[in-house]
């Protein structure tokens, strides 16, 4: 299984038979090396409904007939737009053909801004635990620091965790280092930084300070094999 990072919070997971995308914000994301017009996915996992996370879900899912797994209200909104969805919610898990998905809490917001400028509430934000062939990926989602991250780390053997460090909209590097310690992943990767001026951070400095497991500042397109 190959896990790659593509800027902001975009993560791609490739198994022998499936391509899975987390939060595919590609168009308008200058850091992303993917092409929204050509990339195909079997599954799209969404942490919440903000436009910089839903991203190109509509286009990719319609072209690829991808299954979109998302918090209930967001899944309902996307389903009403014609996408194939599976709604879930915090604390719930489900075993799919491609692996097991469990949604965890995250402290943030969740609303989608439509082309006409109107905003649609899309339910609670979340983190996502994805387990495939005994390997667990934790996409923490957009969140501030909260103490149940320690419980999540104790309850799950996490191989790689993607943790936001940008500050302003999510936790910053200092809080993210505490989160990394609590999550206790074998590898911690910083995400959600440098996309906009207000969230500029140094991922290498963060990675060097990770005190549990390995801190890894993945460059755009970098791949980790699990």
Largest sheet, strands/sense/barrel: 7 strands, mixed
**What fraction of residues sit in β-strands?**
25-35%
What is the H level of CATH, i.e. the homologous superfamily? Ribonuclease Z/Hydroxyacylglutathione hydrolase-like
* Gap between N and C termini: 5 Å
CA radius of gyration is 16 Å
The counted number of beta strands is 16
Could you tell me the mean pLDDT?
A: 97
CATH architecture tag: 4-Layer Sandwich
Strand order of the largest sheet: 6-5-4-3-2-1-16
CATH class: Alpha Beta
> With helices defined by DSSP (H or I, 4 residues minimum), what is the helix count?
6
Task: Give the tally of structural domains.
Answer: 1
Structural class: alpha/beta
Sequence of secondary-structure elements? EEEEHHEHEEEEEEEHEHEHEE
Indicate the low-confidence ranges by residue numbers. Answer: none
Task: Sum up the overall morphology in one term.
Answer: globular
CATH topology: Metallo-beta-lactamase, Chain A
* Helical residues, percent: 10-25%
Domain Metallo-beta-lactamase: 7-192
Pfam family, one: Lactamase_B_2
Family: Belongs to the UPF0173 family.
Protein name: UPF0173 metal-dependent hydrolase BN988_00059
Description of the molecule:
The protein has 226 residues and is an alpha/beta fold. It has one domain (2-225): Metallo-beta-lactamase, Chain A, CATH 3.60.15.10. It has six helices and 16 strands. The strands form three sheets. The protein has a seven-stranded mixed sheet, covered by helices on one side. Strands 7-8-11-12-13-14-15 form a seven-stranded mixed sheet. Helix 4 (148-155) runs parallel beside helix 5. Keywords: Hydrolase.
